[in-house]
Amino acid sequence: MAAILSLTESQAFTALRAMLVGILPANVPVVQAQANRVAEPQAADFVLMTPVGQRRLGTNDTEFGDNIVTGSIAGALLTVSAIVQGALTPGALLLDTTGILAPGTVLGMQQSGTPGGVGTYAVTPAQTVASETIYAGLRSDLVPTELAVQLDVHGPGSADNAKIIEGLFRSGYAIDAFAASGFDITPLYCSDARQIPFVNDQNQVENRWVVEAEMQINPVISTPQQFASQVAAKVVEAAPDYTGP
Predict the structure, then answer these.
(1) Residues 50 and 103 in one domain
(2) In-domain check, residue 236
(3) What is the pTM of this model?
(4) Rounded CA separation 61/201 (Å)
(5) Residues 6+ apart with CB under 8 A from 129
(6) In terms of domains, do 69 and 28 share one?
(7) What is the three-state SS of 33-75?
(8) Is 53 a member of any domain?
């Protein structure tokens, strides 16, 4: 039962690219680097994004969710008709008291309906289950992380474009831009721009300025968690010859 990550590297790059596209001239492509057999953009000016490090910013903030719903499963789709307790999050371990649910059934991404509530969800493995009470246990670990991304700003306008990036990444503009992305990302700071010439495959020198952008990302790692709804206790008598310690 694999863990589920709420904020992926791809989503972080999507948010960063949206911020950069919003401040650079319209003819400046912004793409992710380290793509094999992919040529440079044909535009004179462009920006390449390369991840260079992740640094933990604190210990895990762990929460547990003991959620109860009413639902049925057809194939790989769970239909939730009512929320009895809590709210659903992908990665939860699904259990029942009837033994009908397949062992190790895990909740996937929501397909439709109210977020975390009534609606349809992907499940694995596929199965058929009539409407019943389903328990969806979940452990959530928030892992605050500093993500460093190197921005290689190429082209004849690279010095000006690097200054735009460096100037606005440290401002409230960047904070608002990342907030608008919908992802839990906050810009922290960036390095000063450095001019590092780039020699291309034709042995020609291209103008390149390098800026390292630092962002805080707050991914939540969800893993299945089993809960007990009740505890049965009983008294066990000591053996007759027991004399104690």
Answers:
(1) no
(2) no
(3) 0.78
(4) 47
(5) 72, 73, 96, 100, 101
(6) no
(7) CCCCCCCCCCCCCEEEEEEEEEEECCCCEEEEEEEEEEEEEEE
(8) yes
Which H/E stretch holds residue 161? helix 158-169
**Would you give the DSSP letter of residue 202?**
T
233: in domain: no
How far apart (Å, rounded) are the C-alpha atoms in residues 120 and 149? 37
**Residues 146, 57: contact at Cβ < 8 Å?**
yes
Using CA atoms, how far residue 218 sits from 4, 32, 55, 141, 146, in Å, is 14, 21, 12, 10, 9
| Residues β-bridged to residue 95 | 135
pLDDT tens digit at each of 245 positions of the chain = 568 888 999 999 999 999 999 999 999 999 999 888 888 888 999 999 999 999 999 999 999 988 999 999 999 999 999 999 999 988 888 989 899 999 889 898 899 999 999 999 999 999 999 999 999 988 999 999 999 999 999 999 999 999 999 999 999 999 999 999 999 999 999 999 999 988 877 888 889 999 999 999 999 998 888 887 677 888 888 777 666 66
Rounded distance between C-alpha atoms, residue 54 and residue 13, angstroms: 14
Task: Count each helix (H run) and each strand (E run) in the chain, helices first.
Answer: 3, 14
d(CA 35, CA 67): 42
For residue 109, give its domain range: 61-140
